[in-house]
User: Fold these one by one.
Assistant:
Number 1:
Amino acid sequence: MLRFLLLILLSYATACPNPHTTALNGFKLPYRLYQPDQTFLMPPELLEISGLGLASDGKTLVAVQDEEGIVFFLNRKTGSIIRQLAFWKDGDYEGIEMAGKDIFVVKSSGTIYHILYNDNRYDQVEKYSFSLSRENDVEGLAYDAKNNRLLLACKAKAESTDTTDTQRGIYSFDLSTMQISTQPVFTISLEDVQQYLTTVGTTVEKLEQQFAEDAEKFAFAPSGIAIHPRTGHIYIISSVGKTLFVLHEQGKILHIEKLQKKIHAQPEGICFAQDGTLYISNEGKKGEPGKIYVFHMK
């Protein structure tokens, strides 16, 4: 009898999707973002962990916090700090990525710092400034190996001349020319989200309220971006509104998931290992340490 009841419960759990999830064209999120497989508690130095990436060796995570010009190298299996690299003076650093052995860090102003690896050490930093500014509020940085570029996700308005607050932009930084695109390569607008929610017929009440036409503002402000190594899909987290967006590599919305605030208090960084393992970092606050959550593909 007990076995029969367990089978019924298992069937019910399998048939009932996560109530915080919507999906398009059969896409299924291969992660349970409400149930981390591991949790790494960050030391005081990374209380305000703001950017996360994967090192070229595949064994190490790289991180920055939003007050100091220091790169932290972390053990991917334990989250412990292996070493630190000071590269610039204090500032508002928001995203980090590695392309080969070189490290790239972005400020909220859109300034990119290229930390070059030469003769078995990091001995040179090149700085790039463009038309983006603090008004755009760049918070996410992703390495797009397929297109030899970095993607910069803006938390605020999409263009320097844009005065509306209903569209977010993602710019590209070409690693062969070291130039940034003059216009966003992808945009996500409130209208895009509303159309998506209408198409999937969502019953997620919180999402419907968050992106309603009468909403006071567009409650989506990218704080982290990463590209899935197996699918090429673009994952974007937003601390504002507590959501995860998954885009097709051409920019179309495939999936939106509402994040649980009790777990993702302030999601700021996101990256993948080559096997598809997902890492999301959360800033600490109110006596709570910063955290990195680990999610294995299901």
Note: The first strand starts at residue 21 and ends at 23.
Number 2:
Amino acid sequence: MARITAGVATSHVPAIGAALDSGKAGEPYWQPVFAGYERSKQWIAEEKPDVIILVYNDHASAFSLEMIPTFAIGCADSFAPADEGWGPRPVPTVKGHSSLAWHMAEQLILDEFDMTIVNKLDVDHGLTVPLSLMFGQPDEWPCQVIPLAVNVVQYPPPTGHRCYMLGKAIRRAVESYPEDLKVVVFGTGGMSHQLQGPRAGLINTAFDQAFLDTLISDPVAQSKVPHLDYVREAGSEGIELVMWLIMRGALDDQVKQVHRFYHVPASNTAVGHLILENAGS
């Protein structure tokens, strides 16, 4: 059967992609950010996942205020980099795994999660920056990817508990798929940041580090944190962190921390990153 072996959490700051694409990764400002992922690139090259389920939020590239799915799963064979206003990123087209994605959609809906099925989807920096951080700049991505988009842009977003339980349902769906596949789940977004208003540029390091601690050791407690706490402590865009709970819910209750990285600043936010392996992997 297919199995989930590990989870990756990472920020998906658009400026990180721009720095990499424009050859600025070695500059003093950006070098510490990319250095924090060198261990991660080595790990994923050794892990060799067949499929990544990548949880992210669309930034008005594929969806808009005209259509706002709470949870959407990409079931196509491929996903092109989105044009976010300055042209698509110069990265490979994302190869999907439509068979597993359709199986997941069916199982999740029967498990009472209302998934929006998407058969045509351009993917923006929310999805491509995490791939770049983990794989660098290959001619093609070395594994297949299932995009899972979450609404954390328009109120109301799903609760942390709903996201955590979706992660558990994803694990059940994957483990009921008959093909022998190694699957890694990515949760992306965050950490603390706010892009507008009087608190623009907010970074709350204490909150970020406490979130990382609790996500690892007591994800059930973290899943109970209400939206208002994220907004108050981590800024209006800090709510993206609920997507990390989907990744965490797909793993064992007890996990092994392979790598942890935190850096301030990257553009106007903090960068957080975790690699967690199932205890039995």
Note: The chain has a mean pLDDT of 96.
Number 3:
Amino acid sequence: MLSSIRSLIKSALYPIYERRIVSRLDFSQTPHHVGVILDGNRRFAKENPDPLDPKGHKRGAEKIIEFLGWCEEADVKVVTLWLLSTDNFKRTPEELETLLKIIGQTVDELDATNRWNIKAVGALDLLPSWLSQKLVNISTKATRAKKADCLEVNVAIGYGGRREIVDAVKSYILESEKSGESLRQAAEKLTAEEVSKFLYTAGQPDPELLIRTSGEQRLGGFLLWQSALSEFYFCEAYWPDFRRVDFLRALRAYSARHRRLGK
């Protein structure tokens, strides 16, 4: 009874609290690119068991469209969502198969909204052919019919920061070879700027803000190269429990920081 009363009080107060945060936010300081590690689905599921969603992945996926709406409201330009890491392939075949199906359904739902430009980032060769082809088709469609002034949504699937850097360097070397350059010439030309041209996120701004849910305070290799100057925000809420007020708190924390960028 007491917990129900507390829940009702919180439900009544949170909209007021949200409006208060919004009124004090300087949206001219909104990050252009926000990266999110969607963590905590399985721990959420342990505390909120559901036989139809034993690992919480489905309920986590249901949060994504709502979250992207909050990003639109805040005038964020690019969002990168880490949906599946290279390490996740170590999970049991049963859980991995279920997770891949949910990811496929989620990407279809994002595409069906026709609201955002969707790009798959990651080592697609690690994925089953049905999913990798789906991601290629959606990314190609977004490139050909890119919607102006729409949110860019990167879905990081089969993603690992070290793998991305290795892939970028390999692509640079192969491109240099096509241009008739020797290995020595390619090495002499190699710079950070050149590597950036071959990253999965090439052409997009680096993320100013990275958010990780579930209370874990590490990046785990997320956007390893791009996050050199990013601000980090770690939230205690599990991803399925992540609320608009949590996102606003992250934006508030970001806007309050003095970003010297090494100067």
Note: Residues 31-255 form a domain with the Undecaprenyl pyrophosphate synthetase fold (CATH 3.40.1180.10).
Number 4:
Amino acid sequence: MGEILSLPFVQRALLAGALVGIASALLGSFVVIRRMTFIGAGIAHSSFAGVVIGLLVGFDPLISAMIFAVVTGLAIGFFAKNYRIEEESAVGVFFPFSMALGILLLGFIKGYTPNIMGYLFGDILLVGKQEVYLAGLAFVLTILFFSIFFKEMVFSTFDEETSRVIGINVDLVYYLFLFLTAFIIVVSIKIVGIILFSGLLVIPPLISLFFARNMKAYAILSATIGFVSVTAGLILSYFLNLPSGATIITFSFIALLFAAVISKIS
């Protein structure tokens, strides 16, 4: 263990992964409670078009993916709020469109594009200082958001109309939540990839639901499980020489199965 922790690329991956695991699980705790899991998957897959646009025009794919994902996430929220369209239906439009756009634009890129698989499924070797800084920023923004708006999130989640009556700016909290979700999705691309991110967003909160007795404990336990899942998955992927993203999600899924069995027995 001491040997692998001395490797710079492992240090970067573990640090970025731990920060991302905590932040995504915190956001995921409300994604699950609000039944918005499809939105997480939709925004994640929409970032594929942003990645391809970046590769096509010679721009940083991570930045272009972030812009595209944030715009898509806010657009989904806007249509859901203003046009009486269910969030799932809005995702059902933007999800296939953005993937189709990415596939179409991919055909215009000349030559071999080996990085595409890394963006789709994650690659521990691709984690650099930029990803660590972005993961740190995502972590800080997420902690700040929940420190300021935790009560508002809880109230608006369970009773939106009453929340509006008592003066909570429900729309502001909702759009900030979507923005952070889109942001953390793109930051996580190098860790677990576009295809697998929804597992990182959803599985730790689902495990937490088996054991938590109130919302604060639920959110904290979700973050803890997210941290453990990413860290353990990355270490296992190194020792077993397996893809990091797939190992993290597989480990999380097995943990979910164990949690379900334990909750049934106890």
Note: The radius of gyration is 18 Å.
